[in-house]
Amino acid sequence: MQDYSKIDRKLIDHVCQIARLELDDSERESYIRELGEVLAAFKVMDELQLEDEPAFHPIKVENVWREDEARATEWDPLGNSRHKEGRFFKGPKIV
Amino acid sequence: MAATVREYVEGVRGGSIDPREEIPRFLESARELQKRLNPFITINESVEFKTEGALAGLPISVKDNICTKGIMTTAGSRILEGYVPPFDATVVSKIKGEGAFILGKTAQDEFGFGTFSTNCAYGIPKNPIDTGRSTGGSSGGAAALAAAADFPHIAIAQSTGGSITAPAAFTGTVGITPTYGRVSRYGLIDYANSMDKIGVIAKNVYDAALGLSVISGYDPMDSTSANLNTTDFTKSASPDKPRIALPKQYFLSTTDRRVAELVIRTAERLESEGMTVEQVDMPFTRYSIPAYYMIAITEASTNLAKFCGLRYGMQGELKGNFDEYFSKVRSEGFGTEAKRRIILGTYARMSGFREAYYIKAMRVRARIIREFKSVFQNFDAIITPSMPILAPRFSDIAEMSPIETYNMDMMTTAPNMCGLPTISMPVGRIDGLPVGMQLIGDHFAEERLIGLSQIIEGLQ
């Protein structure tokens, strides 16, 4: 398995591929440096042993259910796109 | 002399003020302010109002990450340029329902990613007190307008980690960040789902409380909306003998000592008025910035995955395959800070790191909530400086590294990530620049906080 614990060009390129971002060389160098600085500062959380602490939401939330029924829409889903054909969005080729 | 919000609304409802005569002047003033301070992304010239309701005929500005039917909504990002929502956010429906009209959409850091409103795709809002200084972020346009408007007005703003408190502090206005769930998020363009809150910025506590009264309440369209009755917050009462905690970690980490001293002097004044004021220890405060940012960037990187340049907002020529098109549009549409947060958040969610970063940060948040709850067993409110510095010059902000900028959120990240309500209010000036004091309350204790802040406002 690839080791991604080191903040370098290979890691940034891999992350950008996942996030669908393209960087130029200058951006890449900046982000390599800044990512390292930010993650180093955040290491302070390692001081805490919190395995018994829950990882929950800030207030109590409950699931909200409703019947799975169709609802009529009164707006045009295609209204904000110039990439459309008939009743469909038109996109770039996938394969 | 311009009418106050209360005088204006009462005048409109009683028939002594005709909005049709007043509104052209409001719009002219808004255009003038735009030239000087750039508080808007869009000024809405299509005015519709009612002469009835709690906000009858009142101009309300709305932060640009809140959807407004028929008015461009970009969240301050180029990637949403041209997006015209086909629906109103619940808060917008509510303010329209009470007779207000949408004056415009206010400038902000892209998606709320900033402390100083300098990460803006449509121009940087300027501080009305000194145009060479920041308004604070990310609701900078809202605060600049609230401070500078010479007409009755309330700003609808939004906070994830301090985006109401920071600009309220730097512009000398009052900002209310409600409890998470108090105000519906339906129609808000997400930054970090578990922390986003819509709130209010205004010239004084009454106006801010009036705005909160209108926009709060249960909404079945937001599954995290709290099932509570609506409340008239303008009638909020303070506890008889308020007990106030001063957490020493917040004061020790205030970069500008003069800011800390002014807030302490304000607390001493409250003590002399018969309130109980005691110092408390909150050692987990030091973990709030990393925990907040880790949760924020992780949730943000997921939320921003939906912007692909096809269905709305920025759209390119359909060239290449889907990944190539998607990557090109996103790379052109997102600004530097948005890309930074997407990269960090995507990294933190990668297999093998999620437990160490995101889940760990969630556990830290739970621990900090317990620390707050423990203080609220003995106190009605916690008081801190709103920001650790005075409004900085743009030239000083340009010299800050990302981590130095993130550290400026040291007063606001903990209450924001814990979903606690806060009020930032001005308590004096240093070198002509306003100093904000932050009041933090327990979940859903807005009435107590507003009542207390009305007393403090009356003492000044």
Description:
The complex is a heterodimer of chains A (95) and B (460). Chain A is built from 2 helices and 2 strands; from the N terminus they run H-H-E-E. Chain A has helices at residues 9-19, 25-42, and strands spanning 84-85, 88-89. In chain A, a hairpin with a 2-residue loop joins strand 1 (84-85) and strand 2. The mean pLDDT of chain A is 88. By secondary structure, chain B is of the alpha/beta class. Chain B contains 16 helices and 11 strands. Chain B has helices at residues 5-14, 19-37, 90-97, 140-148, 165-171, 205-215, 248-252, 257-272, 288-303, 322-333, 336-349, 355-376, 394-398, 402-407, 413-417, 446-459; strands spanning 40-43, 59-63, 101-106, 154-159, 174-177, 197-202, 243-247, 276-280, 381-385, 422-430, 433-440. Chain B has an 11-stranded mixed sheet, with helices on both faces. In chain B, helix 9 (288-303) crosses helix 11 (336-349) and helix 9 (288-303) crosses helix 12. The mean pLDDT of chain B is 96. Chains A and B meet through helix 1 and helix 2 of A and helix 9, helix 10, helix 11, helix 12 and helix 14 of B.
